[in-house]
Structures are given as C-alpha cells and as structure tokens.
Q: What sequence folds into this?
C-alpha cells in the first residue's frame, strides 16, 4: 500500500511539473524560416544582459556562413549545453572559406533564459537537429555534422541513424561524463530545479551562453550520453571523424573517450587531436600538443578551449569576457575581475602565485583547423608540426 501511495505522489508531482514554457517553434520548411521564427521567439522571450539587444539576438539566433559559388559540401553545427550558435563564430567562417555551406542551430531551451531548460527534453533537441540536417542535405552533395560537447553527441547520434552523413567534427564530445553519479540527474530533476547556482558576483549568463543550467538539462545530457554509448557498443562508427579532447577536461571521462576513439571509430582517415601533458598511450591516428604554454600563460586546456581563436574579440587571449569564475578562491576571482594578470586553465586548477581564468581560446586554432580539413577534405594535408596561432 505504501508503494502505491508513493507512485501516486510521484505521478502527481510529474503532472505538477508539466510544461508551461513555450520553446522555440520548430517544423519549418527552410533554414531561413527557422532562423526568422527563432529570432522572433528570442525577441519576446530572451532576458537580455546588455543594452545592445540586436547584437544579442544576432549571435543567439541560428547562423549561416556561405562559401563562394555553389556549395557541394554542407555542415550543420550543434552547440553545447546552454550555449548558442555564437560558439562557432570562429570555426564557421573558416569552414565557409574552405567551400562548406555552414549552418549553426539553436537548441530548444537555449538562448533565452536558463530557466527555459527546466522543461526541455532530449526529443526537442533531436527534432531540430534532424529537421535542419535533412534540409541541409537536400542542398549539397556531401553532408557533414559537427558539434561541441552535448552538441557533438547529438551530431554523432544523428549520423548513426543517417548514413548519408559523410563525416563528423566532434569537439569535446560528451560521450561519457566525468561525474560518477550523473545517472542520478533524472531523479534529482524531479525534486529539484537547480543543483548549482552562480557564485557571488557572477551572472547566470553572458551575451553568448548560460553560466548555469537547471537539473533537467543535466538529466537530458545524461540520457544522450547513454544513447551514444549504446550505439558505439552495438556497432562501430565507420565514417571519418575528427575528435578533439583535452586531458584536463573537467566535464568528460577523457580516458574512456580516447579508448572509444581507438576501438569504435574505425575509419582509417579519422583523427584524434589531443591536448595534454603526455602523448603516451595515445592511438596511432592521434595528433598531440602540450597543454602547458607559458607564452600564452596557459596551464592546461579546458572543456571549451579548443573552439575559439586567440584573436577572438570576446574569448581570445586579450578578450573582453575572461571567465573569472573558474573554481578559484573568492579573492582570486575578485583580482581576476579587477584586471590583475591572469593565467588560463581548465576549471578548478589552483597554482601558488597565479590567478586562473577559464581557458576560452586555442593557440593551436589554425593548426587544428588544418587537421579538420585533412579529414573533411581529404585532398588537403595537415602539417607534421603544429604552430601556435599568432
């Protein structure tokens, strides 16, 4: 009898959490209609953080970069948990200059307000990826997908089910979390909307991404990671893949994912780009570079650091938006915010005498891009030695 009442309580609780949030409208017949509908949604639902609302709308809405002439290749880019299409502000134009029709989507629940992710579902994310990948695939001879973190897993999942996808670009793919109790996130989401809240003096978001996400977002992240691990277990992925990983990633189980690359991503053209302390035991198809670069004041690479050029106006070496909330002491965070000299690292690194902001740029960006082109455009060859981006 007690079990019966407990089940009834849980059912009522779930009904009480029924969706009241209107998400980004989907189902459009073209990318342009989808972009305009999403921008209108953001106008009415985004909580703006700067006075320049037009700038925020442009960078959180779906984006497109077109090559010269008629494109033969297209790539759909999918951002990470709580991020936006702006995540590809450096990568998108570079791909377009190399002949790709590039489109970056906005996942439902993102771009407006972190609370909008309380009721979003994995199916909402899958739907927009499928719709826009299908549309892009009708316009080009060769379809590719790419993504960062959660978005990389969405790209991989779609590609498994759609053999017309020729290859993938996976930046810090969220195949397995480093958090050993991530399986508890779906249960926690039933009872608690938020696990983490911003530290004192830190906003919930900046102009381009959320700095916190609700418990439900972690639950959907977990469901997706289970799905892609099941796919990899059942059948290797045999098309070309570029995978980028950082040894010091605070989010991912990096050794597990390296092993998955070696065993489950079987195409001989696939490449792993690995930033870390040592290249020992890396798979044969790997490119390695050290993640300690004192000339850039870098102590280690972060989960998000590979995506942006060091010249990026906001997240670059001299960018306007240093991420001072990086697991440091309150005193170190305040000194970072006050403009003291900072070093860069993955989240949570402490070093005596140094203040660490989150690493939000990649000094090997140009070299990394050449490897991406080596895989996605096989006629191109990557250099043997990596050079830092000036």
A:
């Amino acid at each position: 009898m007690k079990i019966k009442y407990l089940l009834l309580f849980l059912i009522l609780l779930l009904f009480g959490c029924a969706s009241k949030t209107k998400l980004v409208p989907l189902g459009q017949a073209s990318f342009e209609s989808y972009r305009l509908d999403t921008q209108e949604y953001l106008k009415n639902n985004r909580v703006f953080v700067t006075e320049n609302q037009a700038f925020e709308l442009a960078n959180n809405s779906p984006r497109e970069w077109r090559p010269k002439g008629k494109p033969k290749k297209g790539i759909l880019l999918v951002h990470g948990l709580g991020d936006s299409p702006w995540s590809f502000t450096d990568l998108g134009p570079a791909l377009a200059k190399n002949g790709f029709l590039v489109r970056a989507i906005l996942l439902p629940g993102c771009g407006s307000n972190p609370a909008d992710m309380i009721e979003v579902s994995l199916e909402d994310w899958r739907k927009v990826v499928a719709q826009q990948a299908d549309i892009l695939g009708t316009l080009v001879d060769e379809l590719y997908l790419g993504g960062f973190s959660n978005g990389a897993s969405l790209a991989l999942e779609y590609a498994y089910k759609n053999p017309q996808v020729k290859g993938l670009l996976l930046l810090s793919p969220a195949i397995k979390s480093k958090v050993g109790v991530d399986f508890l996130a779906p249960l926690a989401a039933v009872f608690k909307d938020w696990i983490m809240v911003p530290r004192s003096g830190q906003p919930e978001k900046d102009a381009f991404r959320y700095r916190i996400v609700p418990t439900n977002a972690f639950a959907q992240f977990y469901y997706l990671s289970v799905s892609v691990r099941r796919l990899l277990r059942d059948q290797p992925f045999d098309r070309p893949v570029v995978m980028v990983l950082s040894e010091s990633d605070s989010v991912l189980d990096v050794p597990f994912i390296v092993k998955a690359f070696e065993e489950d991503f079987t195409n001989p053209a696939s490449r792993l780009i690995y930033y870390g302390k040592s290249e020992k035991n890396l798979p044969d198809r790997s490119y390695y570079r050290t993640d300690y670069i004192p000339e850039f004041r870098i102590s280690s690479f972060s989960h998000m650091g590979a995506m942006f050029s060091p010249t990026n106006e906001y997240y670059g070496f001299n960018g306007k938006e240093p991420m001072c909330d990086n697991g440091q002491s309150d005193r170190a965070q305040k000194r970072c915010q006050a403009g003291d000299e900072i070093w860069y690292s993955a989240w949570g690194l402490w070093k005596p005498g140094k203040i660490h902001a989150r690493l939000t740029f990649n000094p090997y960006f140009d070299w990394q891009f050449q490897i991406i082109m080596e895989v996605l455009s096989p006629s191109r060859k990557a250099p043997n030695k990596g050079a830092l981006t000036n």
